[in-house]
């Protein structure tokens, strides 16, 4: 009765090197992936299990990569994993202090038409550097959930775990439409369950 | 979590993608005025050669002296040696029945031995090497390495080493597997994946297996031949350079330039440090301790069966005339395949000149990597592993002869 139900979902954690994927992975799964402060710590993948709201899914900590055109053997592992799990949800981990290069990889993954969710990690470091990233706006523009996290302290991790099941595939043309303020593409998808689109929260 | 209907995969060009990135970033990111922090200033100072090189020397020196004074002087000499030699060994020699029995020979070893190094039984030398010498060495090594990793110093060291390593066809980032290898070669072999080309990965893996002594071996070396560690390391570093240079010329392939992403300095989170230290030490206890005990057992059995004697006779001309070391070193060389730390400990009990000792310890270091490293190399590809073994034989033969020749020229061999 109390046995959690396996949803059979696989979540791939994808992001640039040294953005805190392994730290987040440890937070989500309680595993012991090695975490260090240099790019390229994870060169092989680690699998773990996330139990959230009585359901479990498999999470894979993928080696960091700058793009889907592999540059070294660790990046090849990342690209290979994306190919091996075509039905997987992709948890895109972005470093809030270096958003652009993270977005580049995020778009490459979004283009594949797979369901994605974004963890905007290192928000503490971004705050210290006086960089602010509007997560709500990013969520609106991209049409996929964006959650702010600080993996090292665990902030936002619970919320992220709860939102994984709301991962969405996004349409690139709709994204550019929303960026250009195109009214037709502006119709909003209710990303968060329970939201009826009343407009109060600005979404 | 099903796919949204109607989302088809698309493929943007690089430029289109960057345009989109810019547009999104412009909408969502606001950058306030940024003031330089102490961390940034330190970050700058530790990568600029003029200030960075002295800092690197200081860091590495501190690393080595803390390693030596904590693991060697404090824990091993101050505590473990007394515990094992004054209490454990005499008690075991008295309590274990039948000094002439086979079991006594395997478990306790020499009934007249006065130190755990000389006894060479599974429960005497085996346990002492594993728990008394290697465990403290590995523990302190991993603690310091974790601090270097988590603070963000390693990539800065990589930037500094770039010019030097480029001479031998690698680049600065190769320093990371090299430093990991000083702890244990096993994770270091996997870490070579951060190098780009097959050539670089092969070179690094081979040089790593041959010239980088692991933490266990360093710990034993510091304990049994403290005065000779310097020359041994010097020979290993020279060998790394010489054979790196040669391999770079022989092996076809590219050495591309890279951009290194240097992260900002962080205070290591103690939770993460503790967790990593535990994971790594646990890994050591699980893998190395059984190997050391098993290694002692196997070597003892091989001695009993006369295999080592026969091999020693067979290789005597090579060892005595070509390398200039006593023929007794053949036994430790066979043990080295199981554990190099064990082999160094065994060498320390053989009578020879200091230069012969240096030569044989260097030979042990560059001789076969331990079994666990072999398995890791095999995982990266069997062809590469075979090639690495070929290189290894050539290097042992050539470099061993060179060291002997250098000794003759200096008049010490």
Main sheet of chain A?
6 strands, mixed
Please give the oligomerization state of what you see.
heterodimer
CATH superfamily caption of chain A:
P-loop containing nucleotide triphosphate hydrolases
State the helicity of chain A in percent bands.
25-40%
Gyration radius of chain B (Cα, Å) is: 25 Å
Determine the strand fraction of chain A and express it as a percent band: 15-25%
User: Low-confidence parts of chain B lasting 5 or more residues at pLDDT below 50?
Assistant: 1-5
Overall pLDDT of chain A: 85
Spatial strand arrangement across the major sheet of chain A: 2-3-1-4-5-7
How many strand units of chain B?
Answer: 1
Number of helices of chain A: 7
Report on the structure:
The complex is a heterodimer of chains A (203) and B (413). Chain A has a single domain (5-186), classed as Rossmann fold (3-Layer(aba) Sandwich). Chain A is globular. Chain A contains 7 helices and 7 strands, in the order E-H-E-E-H-E-H-E-H-E-H-E-H-H. Helices cover 31% and strands 22% of the residues of chain A. Chain B is mostly helical and 413 residues long. Chain B has helices at residues 14-28, 38-47, 49-95, 102-107, 116-119, 122-151, 154-166, 175-183, 185-191, 198-211, 215-224, 229-250, 270-304, 307-323, 330-336, 340-347, 354-366, 371-379, 382-410, and one strand at residues 29-31.
